[in-house]
Design goal:
binds zinc ion, 138 residues, 22% strand, 60s Ribosomal Protein L30, Chain: A, alpha+beta, single chain, 5-stranded mixed β-sheet, 5 helices
């Protein structure tokens, strides 16, 4: 993620929070993994708690994948867990990732200890914040 993209994401969302950062990472990973076309070649289904901060994830995903609320290719399904499914609509390839509960706790701890900006930077720099639970390439 280059600096300009990050700035655009923060401008769009209104603040630089750790769940926004997590959404950016998940979306980037999925586009690369599925070799999907940004904006029109991807569908994203987000299972997560339907209120901020966890739902801020959705905005990170919109910016990074180009799937948007207006185009109807991203949706939020209220859930206790955070699981995101991506489909490459050109190939039918599918990827599902989960953000484990201990990672969510880690994000809250960073937020408390480091403040928003530093916590979010940490999210951009740390690997292993999510796990692939399903991957299918037709
Ligand atoms: Zn937010």
């Amino acid at each position: 993620m280059d600096e300009r993209e990050l700035e655009a994401a923060i401008k769009f969302h209104g603040h630089f929070g750790p769940f926004l950062a997590l959404g950016l990472r998940l979306g980037e990973f999925a586009l690369t993994h599925l070799k999907a076309r940004k904006h029109f070649g991807i569908k994203v289904t987000v299972h997560c708690p339907p209120q901020p901060p966890p739902s801020c994830l959705v905005d990170g995903l919109q910016v990074s994948t180009g799937a948007t609320y207006g185009k109807r290719n991203i949706e939020l399904i209220p859930s206790e867990e955070i699981v995101v499914q991506f489909v490459n609509t050109d190939t039918g390839g599918m990827l599902t990732v989960r953000v484990p509960k201990d990672v969510r706790e880690q994000l809250s701890t960073w937020l408390k200890e480091l403040g928003e900006g530093e916590a979010s930077k940490r999210v951009l720099e740390t690997d292993g914040l999510f796990e692939v639970i399903e991957s299918a390439h037709p």
